[in-house]
Amino acid sequence: MITARASATFEPVGRSVASARAFVRDTLQGWGFADIIDDATVLTSELVTNAVVHAGTAAEVLCLRADDGVRVEVADRYPEREIPLDQSEGGFGSLDREGGRGLQLCAALASRWGVEYSPTHKRVWFQLELHERPVGTRSAGPSLPTSVLPLADGRVRVAVIQIDRVGAVSSWNEDAEHLFGYQAEQVLGKPLTDFAAWPHTPGTSTGIVDALRLSRWEGSYGIRAADGRVIPVYASHLRVRDTAGEPSTVCLLVRDHERAVLQTPLRGPAPDPGALGDSPTTDPFETFIGSPAPDDLDGLLQRTVERARDMLDADAAFLLLATDDETELEVRASTGLPSARQRFARVPVEAGPGRYGSARMPAVHEDLAALPGAVPLLNGTGMRSVVTVPLKVEGRLTGSLGVAAEAPERYSNEEALRLQFAADRIALAVESARLGELERLRRGSLSFLVEASDLLAGTLDRDQTLALMAQMTVPTLATWCAVYTIADQSSEPFLSYVLHEDEERIDGVKALLARIAPPEPVPTPGARIWSAPSEAAHQAALRTSMRSLGLGEPTLVGSGIGTTLATAAAVGGETVVLPLVARNRVIGMLTLGKPSEDHFRQEILELAEDLSRRAALALDNARLYSERVAISQSLQRSLLPPELPDVPGVEVEVIYRAAGEGNEVGGDFYDLFPIRDGAYGFAIGDVCGTGPEAAAVTGLARHALRLLAREGFTGPAVLERLNAAILDEGARSRFLTLLYGELWPQEDGSAVLKVVCAGHPLPLRLRQDGSVESAAEPQPLLGVMDDLELYEQTITLDPGDVLLCVTDGVTERREGTRMLGDDGLAEVLTTCTGLTAGAVAARIMRAVERFASDAPSDDMAILAMRLPGISKE
Predict the structure, then answer these.
(1) DSSP string spanning 539-577?
(2) What Gene3D superfamilies is this protein classified in (predicted)?
């Protein structure tokens, strides 16, 4: 009857042969069939070679354990390639033939073997019988000649030493006096460690002080005799208590070469690390763990727990790695336990009172029901007995390895010693792989933070910054993310952005978070656990389940039962909050969450903390930029007229483009305003330069024009006073070109204009016949000379005429050495006959934009006024 099975598939590559050997060797070692491992690995090697090398297909290896032996099957996917079964020359029976040797070995080593075909596979199998063992014994060796028996010089002496609860010798028998040369009165009351020549068993990490506190222990150490010699001894410790409840330890010691007297038969002596040699089959680490890739930490840890479980025939096994400060252990691999729930969970190193509850020492718990909470990781798993041992490198705790069973009293000190020996052999490899993973993670973290910094620095938009923060954390760091922002110290946190790796769950998560109070804005750096989302999710799931039974109402309004349960599962895991602190003020919180029963790794939390600091500065910079932009835009908009007045009998259109990103107003400006009944003032000007400095002069000019014109001054008088005001600005003054005019619409559809052109591009008049002419003469610009003699010119616009006024940003539009100029502008204007004022302005702007491919480098303003007439279109 088959009692156990193990299978694996290997790719058609050369290295698969060694992997298959390791798989079979590890499997049989775990089943306790060490005496047939060599034959099984040799046969497996030959058959897998036939499959992956000669047949060129993947090999499927199946190990079956039965009461009478072990059967190993090797299948390939090349059924057409037949096995050479003939006994003729060159056939299966020929030693000169290369093929078929694996079957020769099967015939020679296996008790039975065979070949089976199917439409898709060819399977070769062999069975090895188990060697007979003496009945009624735990372990037995063969009868040996007297000459090869272990040598004992004289009578075998067993030193019996009793150690009290503080580690002092309380009993010292006659054999101890003979072995070590001390009389009882010389040692009583003194610590046993005073006589220890080396602190612990070679190849293990348990010292004598630790061993004396264990319930049972076996191992070797050295005792310094009275004459100064170091006597290697093998010891067996048993911790007992007297009728008064006082604990003590009874130690039985023999000379190390006589260890067979005390040594537990189930456990062989610890091999000397220096005598292991280079053969991979003799290395206990290789035998226990196989051949994992040196940089595959997860694979190494998972294989370790699986081999540990098999080695002690356990129901579950787990491995935890210590944090840098050695205060907590993080679950990294498990088998037989709900790994999805336990992975990356943390437990304290000191889990119970005293050193008996410390992960720094081996521990055997015969029944967890008698000591609830002794192993927090196993709470609620149904495990009753457990043995845990530390992983140590150079005396530093690096992890903990444990195996557990559902039945009580499954493990004793013997199993703890076996597991400790295995843990000591793999501790260095695990630590090396962990450090390699940590280095790779740190390099990846640096790359991640550099990229995140670049992205965050690339935008000053608040909403985009919030989106980037969430998108960089999901799914790289967390399953879902929520960003809370705080406007000021008196404001409550506001849920500003929510993101989930599954877009269909975003609304559900947002609705769930909206129903609970936001986290407290604590400025303390680092991640802190926030339990409110998971509690709300669990309550939502419970109420939804009750509703499905007709007992309650749904938790999430508008959500179906499936949606609510999915949302609860998505938010039901660990949730952490990181403060967003910028300039010593909490401006928000970054909330990261995991799905149900999942946990964050410490390295991920440290990376999230680094990201939160960068994100907080980026968010605060975006806030400051948005505020300053809003202020700037508000001030700039105040420099332009809020709206153009309706002028009876005149069409008016203005197009304004300020150069520079974020600028609404530059050095160019325009205005059209009523002066008195029937009279309107208009202006278009250009202050030297662009940006805020030019805009300041723009504001001065526009407001002064309105004020002076409404005081009844003529056009020349208005400009002369404006010139004086500009010069009064001193170092902040800028010269200004300005076209100012006054407009009187007439009852016959015409209009009378009085204009002054102070250094500005001349206005152009378009008549109905398509002719274009200048409507004014050039005069000195403003802001240069104190005394100006300006004059105004009067023109009459007939119905259908257009008056076009532009700034030099239009006429000086360049493409290489070409410039649009006054002539080019006039040429474009001739094509605008019959168009409305809006159409004229739009055509001029399109012509300017198309004249050059580069973006405009100067402010541009276009003011078109047209007297309605008979259109030609």
Answers:
(1) HHHHHHHHHHTTSS--SSTT--HHHHHHHHHHHSS-EEE
(2) 3.30.450.40, Histidine kinase-like ATPase, C-terminal domain (3.30.565.10), PAS domain (3.30.450.20), PPM-type phosphatase domain (3.60.40.10)
pLDDT tens by residue, 574-615: 888 999 988 888 889 999 988 866 778 777 888 888 888 888
Count other Cβ atoms within 10 Å, centred on residue 101: 15
**Vertex 855: Cα angle to 851 and 858 (nearest 5):** 90
The one-letter code for the residue type at 556 is L
According to DSSP, the residues that pair with 671 across neighbouring strands are: 683
**Is the omega angle on the peptide bond into residue 475 within 30 degrees of 0, that is, cis?**
yes
Distance in angstroms (rounded) separating the CA atoms of residues 538 and 789: 86
Residue 613 tokens read as 């600091």
**Number of domain units in the chain:** 5
| 264 vs 270: CA distance, rounded Å | 12
Question: 715-761: per-residue pLDDT in tens?
Answer: 999 999 999 888 888 776 778 899 999 999 998 889 999 999 999 99
Structure tokens at 476: 């790289």
- Is residue 151 assigned to a domain? no
Helix or strand holding residue 116 (H, E): strand 112-117
Task: Read off the tokens for 268.
Answer: 């062989």
For 618, the domain range is 459-550+561-630
- Domain end, chosen from 580, 603, 630, is at 630
Cβ contact 311:30 at 8 Å: yes
Q: Report residue 273 as tokens.
A: 């690390």
Which residues, in sequence order, are bridge partners of residue 803?
Answer: 765, 865
Residue 426: which residues within 8 A CB-CB, separation 6 or more? 285, 288, 289, 300, 304, 391
Same domain, 204 and 307: no
pTM to 2 decimal places: 0.46
The CATH number of residue 210's host domain is 3.30.450.20
484: tokens are 């809370």
